Amino acid sequence: MTVLNRYPTWKNLLVVAVLLIGLVFALPNVFGDDPAVQISLETTQPLDDVTVVRVEGVLQQAEIPHEAAYLHEGRVLVRFQNVEQQLKAVDLLREDLGPGYVVALTLAPRTPGWLRALGLRPMSLGLDLRGGVYFLYEVDMEAAINQALDRYESDFRSMLREERIRYASVRHDGRDVVMVLRSQEDMSAAEALVRDADPDLVVQTSATANEYQVRVRLSEDQIRQRQDFAIQQNTVTLRNRVNELGVAEPVVQRQGVDRIVVQLPGVQDPAQAERVLGATATLEFRLVDENNNPFEAKSRGRAPLGSKLYQRRDGTPVLLKRDIIVSGDQLTDASAGFSEGQPAVFVDLDAKGARKMGETTRQNLNKGMAVVFIEQKRESVERGGETVEVTKVEEEVISVATIRGVFSSSFMITGLDPVEARDLALLLRAGSLAAPIYKVEERTIGPSLGQDNIDKGMLAVVIGFVLVVVFMAIYYRVFGLVANLALLANLVLIIALLSMLQASLTLPGIAGIVLTTGMAVDANVLIFERIREELKNGNSPQASIQAGYEKAFSSIADANITTLIAAIVLFTFGTGPIRGFAVTLSLGILTSMFTAIVGTRAVVNLIYGARRVKRLAI
Amino acid sequence: MEFLSKTTHIDFLGKRRLAMILSGVLILLSLAALAGRGLNFGIEFTGGVVIEAGFPGAADLTAIRSGLEEAGIPKAVVQNFGSSRDVVIQLEAEDSAVGGDIRDQVMAVLRDLDGEVTLRRVEFVGPQVGEELAEAGGLATLFALLMILAYVAFRFQWKFAVGAVAALVHDVIITLGFFAALHLPFDLAVLAAILAVIGYSLNDTIVVFDRIRENLLRIRKADTVEVMNQSMNQMLARTLMTSGTTMLVLLALFIFGGEAIHGFSVALIVGVAVGTYSSIFVASPTALALDVSATDLMPPQKEESEVDALP
């Protein structure tokens, strides 16, 4: 007869190994956090030990004690005993390191060096637990397309001029750019020109008695490319702006077709963050139309062909050529300063922009050039009884200067007050947004609420856990104690997995853990009830244990798989907080299957297996 | 210790008519509440702004209300949240088009009342995002039900699957009805709880079905009603035990988990209670009404044509 209820050595070893690995991975979570300062380069290039030494030197000189300073993933982390020291240090370091470095407040785990060396980290906490700001931005795709059309319009006009093709007008009509020409030949020439310039464009011609039209439309592919570009460019820009804010471990990520998520852990003032992130200020350089009278145009309410009516800051009208010489996205660097006692922004252009600027200034010496300051704002407007949101573009001319000489890549702009100059330089440096964005969701959790959530969540976990443990021990005696061991192991494994995956733990996530604790018991209840039944049917203790585990298995598997299905659906459809719940629920189901079936069996076998047992303490 | 030291012999199915009436009444009441009062959707679904602020002492709600009104923010709902010092201010979707500005305006009003006030939480959801979340939520519930229907049909048999899903729909409707009747706020966390209820209730149902299947195949002489009753009695101890422990942790969550997950724990408490009931009184009776029997569970006979095809 085979010996009942003895696990082969490998199975026992497996249980021990899984538990040990779980314990090691869960270990970093017991040390807690210290207030810390994180230093990184704006360029996100990794820092080295030289910076660590420098930082330590600065702190030593100012007699600010610190717990530890070390490199972590190319960034320098300095931990402090209390927030007071941390705040003093952050001011000092910002001053000392100067621009180019991002110095941010953060919390750093008090994990000992040897654990860090193994690459082990504690669970990362979600924003609802550690405090911070979450923004969801939507990119205005229509505006992105319109910008592209504007550029085509201006390109076509200069192309026609260069080829000496006479045209009545070039304008855009919905999503089409329409060229109106004066003869059949001109129309064909224009059509050929457009096809030649960009073969992907969709070109249609139509001729009536005295109007010859070429209609140009972006192909579906081009629209998609344009939108992809807009969202990618915006993601980069937002990332740069977040760096300017000085935030530790920020997240800037594309979500879906037209949205960008920004998460700023630890940020306490959403208003300030939003001002910098959402700003849309940019510049355009245009030539002044000197052949027409701007006052006349204003009174007529219409600009002459090829020109656009603008206002200067003092309210006087000015006419500018429709063609943009250079726009904000062609700037490579900007800094604020003073020139002849006036605030100024010094800018550098990229190669393409510089070429265009050089050409334009050479051809237009002694003519006027204007700098247009553009800001996009979102407003809600009543339209047909419904409130709709529209993007309103505010454009004003901040300066008009006469071109005195040829310049290309570097020059300066005046006409702003010092604060505007500083903000504009910051925004230009971080890159302008390729298309306007607007906020569709915000979640801000203050630090006190985050701590409250942690405390309450943990309290609920502990109390729920203790209640179940006591109940199980009373109800199933020795077997109950075994199940309790499994519950504890399950908790350790969930924490280990969360630390391993670096999935962030949220408040719903804690709820998920609490719920799995309740449900993890179920597997053991099923097994133990079955064992009791078998005993009642007059089976021997050993046979009852064997049968209990065997027969309960299919029920446990079915029940857990169906719950897993629900959890996976939750994960797929859910966003942020819900996902946290789905993750811990799924992990909990998987780990509880292991601990409740394999784990308890190993212990039960150890206690009762392979020997004569008269009765079971169940 | 044992609550049921002897296997019980309760005639559950004998009371199925009574249960049907009870479930019917509860469902009708729930539907009436859903149609009448409707769910008190949180801003996550409707769009809007919620601002939570903490005062150093007890907050003066009247002063806050009049302060907001003076500042041109009239339709704000101002309530205490958890304690007398914490205040939640809720604004509807149409007022929230410029979410950032509203937050700053409200905080300015509160700061005028008490300089020590701290911003604890802001949630702004644009109307469009709200609509999407609501849609995704509905879709998730439907999808979860379909997936589960498919799994149970595959593992058992379609009559069981229909019984299981009937019990799930029953649970979801009554839990939703409970929230509508008491006008409790229905937010994303509650939706998550409802999906967890689906998982839980099914867990219960499956375990009973599993035993019914086992017994149907083993005890061929007895009729289906008898086998079902016997199976449910055998599983009664387990059902009560599991529901009991789950309830324990849920109560811990409800009492100690804080305001933020109140709705979540309430939904689960109601759902688990209803789910336990339905796994006994809805799922099996439905399968029975569909005339489930041992032959449904036999492996399918080889078809004639296949046999003929052999040489």
Biggest sheet layout of chain B = 4 strands, antiparallel
Whole-number mean pLDDT of chain B? 85
Contiguous helical run count of chain B = 11
Mean pLDDT of chain A comes to: 85
Whole-number tally of structural domains of chain A: 4
Number of strands of chain A: 20
Number of domains of chain B: 2
Look at the helices and sheets of chain A and give the structural class: alpha+beta
By CATH, the topology of the largest domain in chain B is Multidrug efflux transporter AcrB transmembrane fold
CATH architecture of the largest domain in chain A: Up-down Bundle
Which descriptor suits the 3D outline of chain B?
elongated
CATH class category name of the largest domain in chain B: Mainly Alpha
First-residue to last-residue Cα separation of chain A: 26 Å
Rg from alpha-carbon coordinates of chain B: 25 Å
Largest sheet of chain A: 5 strands, antiparallel
Helix content of chain B: 55-70%
Report on this model:
The complex is a heterodimer of chains A (618) and B (311). Chain A is built from 16 helices and 20 strands. With 618 residues, chain A is an alpha+beta fold. Chain A has four domains: 182 residues, Multidrug efflux transporter AcrB transmembrane domain (Multidrug efflux transporter AcrB transmembrane fold), CATH 1.20.1640; 79 residues, Alpha-Beta Plaits; 81 residues, Alpha-Beta Plaits (2-Layer Sandwich), CATH 3.30.70; 165 residues, Gyrase A, domain 2 (2-Layer Sandwich), CATH 3.30.1360. In chain A, strands 13-14-12-17-18 form a five-stranded antiparallel β-sheet. In chain A, strands 2-3-1-4 form a four-stranded antiparallel β-sheet. In chain A, strand 2 and strand 3 form a beta hairpin. In chain A, helix 8 crosses helix 9 and helix 13 crosses helix 16. Chain A is elongated and about 110 Å long. The two termini of chain A are 26 Å apart. Chain B is of the alpha+beta class. Chain B folds into two domains: 197 residues, Up-down Bundle (Multidrug efflux transporter AcrB transmembrane fold), CATH 1.20.1640.10; 78 residues, Alpha-Beta Plaits (2-Layer Sandwich), CATH 3.30.70. Helix content of chain B is 64%, strand content 11%. Chain B has a four-stranded antiparallel β-sheet. The longest helix of chain B has 33 residues. Chain B is elongated, with a radius of gyration of 25 Å. The C terminus of chain B is likely disordered. The chains are: A alpha+beta (618), B alpha+beta (311). The interface between A and B is large, with 78 and 76 residues.
